Amino acid sequence: MARKDALLRLRSRLIARRDALRKKLSLDKTGDGRGSGDLGDVACEGARNELNSQLATIETRELRFVERALQMLLDGTYGTCEQCGGSIPVSRLQALPYTVLCVKCQSDLEAIGDDEQAEIDWDMACDYEVRFSDQDVLPDDFHRGV
Ligand SMILES: [Zn+2]
């Protein structure tokens, strides 16, 4: 399949996705305010609203990506890596229709963005748990080599 045909297919997929997201997001906005008076239900409702707003945030972000991809299709820049200007393989676009980075640049970005988790030294942590309650049995070799 020619790249152009593949892009045209992706375009209709993106448009369908955009319309679905727009519809969903506009429904979410008008869909609340139908709770009952029960306290338990209110708490439950609160948690559900929290979840809904998190989902809406994710969907809003996805909608932005989709709209950007459609704009790039119009501009003729779709399928071109924003970072290095290289061509993004169609197979990658089919998997991630609104990606703007090639595989290499994406993994470079992820490598930089990785939070370096402070490593927990469990041996150290365990040392604090060691109790020397009885001075008499304090081993001589405890001081050895210090
Ligand atoms: Zn790139």
What's the total number of strands? 0
* Content of β-strand: under 5%
Q: Main beta sheet: strand number and arrangement?
A: none
Shape: flat
Mean pLDDT: 79
Query: How many helices?
Result: 5
Radius of gyration equals 27 Å
Q: Which series of helices and strands comes N to C? A: HHHHH
Instruction: Give the % helix.
Output: 55-70%
Q: Which structural class do you get from the secondary structure elements?
A: mainly alpha
Return residue spans where pLDDT drops below 50 for at least 5 consecutive residues.
116-120, 125-134
Bound molecules: zinc ion
Distance between the termini: 72 Å
Can you describe this structure?
- With 146 residues, this protein is mainly alpha-helical.
- It has a domain at 3-80.
- Helices cover 60% and strands 0% of the residues.
- The protein contains five helices and no strands.
- Helix 1 runs antiparallel to helix 2 (39-75).
- The protein starts with a helix and ends in a 19-residue tail after the last helix.
- Mean pLDDT is 79; it is low at 116-120 and 125-134.
